[in-house]
């Protein structure tokens, strides 16, 4: 693999670190926006080595660099892909918190016979699987808190559907950038947060890995459609836990869901108001997310 060098560069309102091929005319293979933490990869062949160089520089530069978001340049600068016509059915802004879980509950209940459903309604029995019911309650709670940010100029989407049938619980857009928020409802549980795994009542779950992947793919998607390197912060909001203990430093923020709005609003501003509005105009489209997880050609 070719040798790489790093070169800080500042001009006017720009503050960057370039990763170049070695040599007097070494071509840039990646660059870091030191204000936002966004790393733009311009040569996928050197991506892994370039990221190692960026991380090493961030550890030793003596500056506070925001958490890294990696995007890939998929189109020439200034050239954006054409968007399909925007329709009412395409608009995700009207989705309620827990919309995806609610659909799963309805599908689950529809499998029951008519007589069983009527008998359950009359007797007050709950035919919903407990994990779905807990998930819905958690998303409603966190979603309700996040909706309060709208009064302060933020944008909030709920239950953003993905091609694999899953969804992102909440996508929040504001001055600090974009947040992909996963709600995990664990009533009265003991939750431990490690570097790579979360343990709930001694049972380990891959929440961190999945949330990190969700954030990086969202960054790729928005960069493709917006033409902007958007800082995306994956967040796991834990609801109902008796204790939430951090024993490591994971790649995503794992927070107490009751404090979600204060935590998000405390992040430093990185995105101008007009750019946040432009990102929301793209993110609210259902068609935007149909290529989630697939790097555009």
Gist?
By secondary structure, this protein is α/β, with parallel strands linked by helices. The chain has helices spanning 47-60, 99-110, 114-123, 130-147, 207-226, 260-265, 273-283; strands spanning 4-11, 14-21, 28-33, 38-41, 69-72, 155-161, 167-174, 177-185, 190-193, 198-200, 203-205, 232-239, 243-246, 253-256. The longest helix has 20 residues, at 207-226.
Please give a handful of descriptors for the protein shown.
297 residues, alpha/beta, five-stranded mixed β-sheet, 7 helices, 27% strand, globular
Protein architecture, described:
By secondary structure, this protein is α/β, with parallel strands linked by helices. 31% of the residues lie in helices and 27% in strands. It has helices at 47-60, 99-110, 114-123, 130-147, 207-226, 260-265, 273-283, and strands spanning 4-11, 14-21, 28-33, 38-41, 69-72, 155-161, 167-174, 177-185, 190-193, 198-200, 203-205, 232-239, 243-246, 253-256. The protein has a five-stranded mixed sheet. Helix 2 (99-110) runs antiparallel to helix 4 (130-147). It starts with a strand and ends in a 14-residue tail after the last helix. The relative contact order is 0.14.
